[in-house]
Sequence to fold (447 residues):
Amino acid sequence: PTEAFELGIHITAGSMSFLIFTTYRKNFRRIWQLQDSLMSDIAPYPATPPESRLSSPTRIKMAEKHYPCSIANKKQETDDSKRQTLIVATLGPASWTEEMIPKMIESGVNIFRMNCSHRRNGQFEEVYPRIRKHAAALGRKVEVLGDLQGPKFRNGEIDPSITEGCIELKKDEVVEFGIMKNETDFTRPGRITMASTTEQDALLRGCTVGLTILLEDGIKEMVVTEVVSETEVKCKVTRGGMHKARKGINVPDLEIDCAALTKKDIEDAEYLLQLDPPCEYICISFPQKKADIQELIDIMDRLKIPADKRPKICPKIEKPQALTNIDGIMELSQSLMVARGDLGVEMGIERTIFAQKLMIQCAKDKGLYPVINATQMMESMIHSPVPTRAEAADVFNAILDGADAVMLSGEAATGKYPCEAVAAQAAIALETESVQHFFSPALKRPL
Fold:
């Protein structure tokens, strides 16, 4: 039978208001007329009082056919051989041993992530052949993703004379923020310093008055009030707190003028590209534009890697600038990761999930595979043998968004229950797939 629902979208762009009203008929045929050129001008939809929300033009009205709630009592799907969603598990001390690798595979891992941030002491040289050996012994297809660290921004050590090991940043305090002038120019009260690196020098050069600087994943915040030189600025603390050594620094509104691949990234990429057999994917962290992806392609060209042995390039979208340049980034990529950690810091967690939905659909439309949704999906399982209901919902909804893969980070790398985390995520994915047909395509796809 013909089924229909109505979708109204109220858009305010500058001083103009648009009302797009579309009726969908026959199998929920999708008509997507909203042009990308409008998106940058869309203002937030005005708040509506609770009594008017049921008739609000932003609400999707479901088809007249309703499903009884009793359908939720259906028998749970348990045949994991039917699962299409891939489970990506990050390797670490909790999971990369000779004993744990086969257990992780049997629990449901499809892709192992090797985080190059922790590549040291020959561990990867031991782990990589271990993965291939056990996958072959178990007769399972298991792929490997090498994840390049990317540029990192961190303040330096706290002055050793400060016995507490931290300083207090007070709201409205003005502090100096700059590159270390010498080896003893440590972070201390009134002054935050960073070591001189290509990337951190570029961050300071890009600072302008009014620029927001986030410290420790956005827990603390300061705003540039004066540019002293190319290597130093003054900032007003707008959100204070205790500050320790080696904490991360994010600058959401700055496109940092430096190469995407650091010296370490280039060394790690060369290692990954010469593995035998080749790894299947290489992630580029913090890309901001198309040229950042080209850097890895240039390394492949320099090493004369044959086309059939080139890993898929998987950019990790972690900065707002990447969203602006997403078409160019995807043009040179074959896969994509929605990396919600730093993206959530830079965009704010309130906006991150909308970005997730848009990116997944955009990547699917362009034929990238797999599209991976990552960060804190089962975070509580670092310490708990079962996930929270909210985490189960996160996995469920990511798959409804269209994600091909869901990822475990600390849960699999350092957690107490790595196998249980894999099994739980796989079970949620399988159950999601078994009920996917109850949801209309329009509800799974952002406009």
